[in-house]
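Q: What does the assembly look like in three dimensions?
Context provided by user:
Components: two
Sequences:
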Amino acid sequence: MSEATSEKLSSLDGRKVILHDMCLRDGMHAKGEQISVEEMVKVATALDDANVPYIQVTHGAGLGGNSLQHGFSMASNEEYISAVAPLMKQAIISVLLIPGMGTMKELQAAYDAGARSVHVATHCTEANTSPQHIAYARKLGMDTTGFLMMAHLNDAKGLAEQAALMESYGAQTVYLTDSAGYMLPQDVTRCISALRDTLKPETEIGFHGHHNLGMGIANSIAAIEAGASRIDGSAAGLGAGAGNTPLEVFAAVCERMGIQTGVDLFKLMDLSENIILPMMDHIIRVDRESLTLGYAGVYSTFLLHAKRASERFGIPARDILVELGRKKMIAGQEDMIVDTAMTMAKERGLDITTSV
Amino acid sequence: MIFVSSKNKETRQKNPITLQHDKRNTMEKIKCALIGSGNIGTDLIYKIRRSPYLEPVWMVGIDPESEGLLRAKDMGLKITSDGVDGLLPHVQEDNIQIAFDATSAYVHAENSRKLNELGVLMIDLTPAAIGPLCVPPVNLSEHTEKLEMNVNMISCAGQATIPIISAVSKIQSVEYAEIVASLASKSVGIGTRENLDEFTYTTSGAIESVGGARKGKALAIINPAEPPLIMRNTIYCITDDKPDEKKIVASILAMIEEVKKYVPGYKLINGPIFDGNKVSVFMEVEGLGDYLPKYAGNLDVMTAAATRTAEMFAEEIQSGKITLKPTEAA
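A: Here is the predicted structure of the complete assembly.
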């Protein structure tokens, strides 16, 4: 694709973008946190072999995520990380840390197990709950990202201010995270541009999409056009809701546009088809409920919880999700799903079984 | 600082936290100092002013321009912006006997040492937790009996949830308890935000040591929704054996009545529900709307518990059962 012999493939031809796979973290949500150490090793090794530079490995809710609120995974975060990290030929293992749940002690343990990159995540208006953790990650020498979740619940100016806070604490990259899969390309363009105008030139910008409105790819491209250089995706889209931006599809689009990701597309396609697809408990796609998430702006992880509450309390999952959106529930409020379903059942005059 | 001042500061509500409603307290009130002029310190002024046993006399801050100090002055308190050192010379002449520390875990130990040396009892509202942990309906009487010179109030989430865990562990052994506290963004001050891990560690520890669970975990969510959402708390307990549903429900309902005596807006929304050995309880705490509006139940549950604790000590002091003595200088 030398410029001398062909015209540019797109306005982004030659742009370098770092891909970050989420299927062993966000994918945990889609599997009810049930991915075994053996599966983790198999998937991570294949991603490493496909030259994916960053692989996130933790409980779906990150460090400290093992809980009644978020479910218990089959192994501890340290067990997953220490099984995977030593096998990586080039990939860096990353973790998610949400302050209020994960702590610096757990970050230290993840580092000791081999993690060298971290997404420190807060709700998109609460960046000032992250200074301790961002500073601690930098002190450990980790590749440190500030991760603004549910980004559709703040405006461009507000997001830029929050991103600047994270930058001031030491974040080297700041992500906008479309946790609800609600954003449209024009929103992404506006918000990422505001970050690019505000942050220091050396601070990288990232985008983490969910595919609930089918916009994962388009939003990620819009983000790159507006100045993002890191993109989260997930092989075969294995992730919460209708999944993350499907990584192999995104890699193919990048190749068509001349965006340089450095990954081996065919290997990524093969592992998605041969390893990830058979792991899925349900086919990750835009279905009625995951579409509801994107349409109503609800945290993608609520999907399976709402389906379980629906079965127990007899309220359709879509009704529960819409109500959660109306009540402005955010990431981490999974307890409010059962609570909301019970309150709705009472209002509808249904009998509530208090004991099973 | 993120805070929104509430309505007219002169609005007084009927006293919900009097220990003995029928007895007129004719004795001189115990003089108190408040350290830290943020959300908690300011709300404490309202709670203490209402007490028949306590009188707020000093407010200690570090910024002469802070809204909290100016407000305290307006409300008739003596103020200093020189930190605890600005208060020390006045302790004896003003007969300060109880201090409330609402600063941060990092400066609390020093504040406490200085005031204990002068014989001032310290109620600690930071996550420092250098003294024994106190949840009034669970273990307050133990502390007054022992004449502790420093008691810690854990955290808002701890005050809101540990009574429920204790109510379950009283009936049968609890292997694991977990709490999820959802707080309105506007009610969470900068001190808590910048030290969230201390909140997590202290609350998790207290679920075990005060709540009676063998293992504890605490999660906090800060929600910025407008209008702000009332504080919610979800409590999960895993019992060792199949839960005795009837006894547990009765114990929880009785405990809620105990907490209501000093936090009237403490309310069961859903549950308890039982899934195998898991007990889930969904609570709400509405505040009195003293300093922050009613959504900030997290503020009230903390300041009301601290006030209740101080009143219990004050009663003992007044009745001559205990006498506060200076601690020996280290």
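Follow-up: Residues 2 and 186 of chain B are 6 Å apart (CA to CA).
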